[in-house]
Amino acid sequence: MAGMTEQDDAAAELVGRSMAALTDPDARATFFDQVITELLARDHGRIFWGDRLLSLGKSMGFLDDPAFAAAYAAIRGSHQYDQYASPHTVAWRLHTLVWAATNGLELDGDFVECGVFKGDFAWVVAQATDFARQPKTFYLYDTFEGFSRAYSSSDDFPDAPGFFDFADGIYKDPAIYREVLEKFGDMPNVRVVRGVVPDCLADASPDRIAFLHVDLNSPAAEVAALEVLFDRVVPGGAIVFDDYGWHLFRKQKIVEDAFMAARGYRILELPTGQGLVVKR
Questions:
Q1: pLDDT by residue (tens digit) across 51-74?
Q2: SS3 170
Q3: Burial of 225 (0-12, 13-18, 19+ CB in 10 A)
């Protein structure tokens, strides 16, 4: 068509492909990625697309921070979190954690993560805060053997009953524990504790906590961990709930809201899907 530019031609072709994307889920995901990267980019100079979060025109200053950017680049692609080929994946979730942890550096207390998986989130936090040089200990708790049936079941995911077995199979990979130990091998103040949360907290847990990350994907286990750890979080310390705002994990939100309300707190739901509380 006369007057059309190469960009217009590309846009027209993309719209034409949209019809083919209607029936195939992989094609729909690819189409959506292309709409963002090829069409929205024409009108917006600053786009965040990752972890099913789309943001237009925000500063996203954390992506320009050299320490954060280097740490994120090192773990990017370690795990595929959804069906989209988004350029920023979980970067904004990581930014939330780094913010909370950086705040905790100024407080009297150690760092705790309940639910480690491959250790990527904790590793980015450690790198971005130069944790190896800090006078603190970072406690990382995980079974490294999947869900504990004492606390978790498929009933935790009423919208996706197959998710429990799917996720459990991923978490049970025997290579993960060795990889986590190796990942933190040069950080003597990071302690990897293998066991069921909250049971293992009785054997090794700090008295004062300046940063707490809860990511167990289990309503009962997460509340049980809070029963042990919440009172140890020092004033000003942040608690970040990884799955709080995701609808798939809404049972966690229900029990955590009740736990916090009983203590006079309300959890802030973030667009990343996380929840945030700062201890008074």
A1: 999 999 999 999 999 999 999 999
A2: helix
A3: buried
| Alpha carbon distance 205, 260 (integer Å) | 21
Task: Name the residue among 215, 211, 205 with its Cα closest to residue 237.
Answer: 211
Among candidates 206, 212, 6, which has minimal Cα distance to 125?
A: 212
Q: Where are the alpha helices (DSSP H) in 184-249?
A: 219-229
**CB proximity list for 24: less than 8 A, separation 6 or greater:** none
Query: Which pLDDT score is estimated for 121?
Result: 98
Which phi and psi (to 5°) does residue 157 adopt? -130, 70
196 to 54, 165, 179: CA distances (angstroms):
35, 18, 19
Q: What confidence tier does 1 reach under pLDDT thresholds 50, 70, 90?
A: very low
Pairing of strands 233-241, 275-278: antiparallel
Domains and CATH numbers, the chain: 6-43 (no CATH), 91-278 (3.40.50.150)
Based on the number of CB atoms within 10 Å of its own CB, is 58 exposed (0-12), middle (13-18) or buried (19 or more)? exposed
> What is d(CA 66, CA 128) in angstroms, rounded to the nearest whole number?
9
- Separation between Cα atoms, residue 262 and residue 170, nearest integer Å: 35
**Distance from C-alpha of 48 to C-alpha of 57, rounded to nearest angstrom:** 8
- Which token pair is 243? 């799955």
